[in-house]
Specification:
This protein is of the alpha+beta class. It is about 35% helix and about 20% strand. It is built from 4 helices and 7 strands, in the order ααββββαβαββ. The protein has helices at about 5-25, 40-70, 115-120, 135-140, and strands spanning about 75, 80-85, 100-110, 115, 125, 150-155, 175-185. A hairpin with a 5-residue loop joins strand 1 and strand 2. Helix 1 (about 5-25) runs antiparallel to helix 2 (about 40-70).
C-alpha cells in the first residue's frame, strides 16, 4: 500500500473511532433518563485504549514503511522514536539539565519543510526542561557533542492530535535531522 493511501486509510479509521467514542460518551441510546454508569465509563476507557493502541500501531507501521522505502537503517526506542545516529567519537553523553545547541531541520514525511535552523537559527536547549518535542529530547539524551541524527518522531512524541497550529498538521510524523553543535555540562 502506498504511503499516501496508508495515511488516508489511517485518517478514516481515526475519524470512525472518534465518532464511536463520541456516541459512547454522549450516551447516544435515546434514553434521556439514563445516567452515566461505571460500566459506561469502563466501556469508554476500554474503547479509548483500543483506539490509541491501533493509532500507535498504524503510525509505527507508517514509519517503518517510510524508513524501509528510503533504505534507512534505524533503531526504535520503547516509546516509538526511530533514530539513526552518526557518532562523532565524543563519549560525553547529554544528560538532564545540560545545555545544548543544535542545528536542525523539521519536515513532514511528504518532504514539506516546516522549520530549520537555516531560517530560524540554532536551538538552545536545557535538556529536561520541556519546550521541545519529547521525541527530540529523548534523542538528544542518546547523543554527544558533534553527533548528527536522523529522527522519525511519531505524533505522541511531537505535536499530537492537533499539530502546532502553524506548519505542522494534526497527527504529523516528523522527520528531524539534528546536529549537536555545542554541549555544556550542567553545573
Amino acid at each position: 500500500m502506498c504511503l499516501i493511501s496508508h495515511i488516508s486509510h489511517f485518517t478514516s479509521r481515526i475519524t470512525l473511532y472518534s465518532l464511536t467514542l463520541l456516541c459512547i460518551a454522549c450516551n447516544c441510546n435515546n434514553n434521556k433518563n439514563r445516567q452515566w454508569t461505571m460500566a459506561d465509563e469502563q466501556q469508554f476507557r476500554e474503547k479509548s485504549i483500543e483506539v490509541n493502541k491501533d493509532l500507535v500501531k498504524r503510525l509505527q507501521d507508517t514509519i517503518s514503511v517510510f524508513a524501509q522505502k528510503n533504505e534507512w537503517d534505524m533503531q526504535k526506542t520503547g516509546s516509538g522514536l526511530w533514530y539513526a545516529i552518526t557518532r562523532s567519537g565524543n563519549s560525553d553523553t547529554i544528560q538532564r539539565n545540560d545545555l545544548v545547541q543544535i542545528a536542525y531541520t523539521v519536515s513532514l514525511l511528504n518532504g514539506t519543510l516546516c522549520y530549520s535552523s537555516d531560517s530560524l537559527g540554532v536551538k538552545n536547549i536545557k535538556v529536561g526542561q520541556g519546550g521541545i518535542e519529547s521525541g527530540l529530547e529523548e534523542a538528544l539524551r542518546l547523543m554527544t557533542l558533534g553527533d548528527s541524527a536522523r529522527l522519525l518522531i511519531p505524533p505522541h512524541l511531537a505535536h499530537g492530535l492537533l499539530g502546532d497550529q502553524n506548519k505542522i498538521p494534526a497527527l504529523a510524523i516528523l522527520h528531524y535531522t539534528v546536529v549537536v553543535k555545542r554541549h555544556y555540562r550542567a553545573p
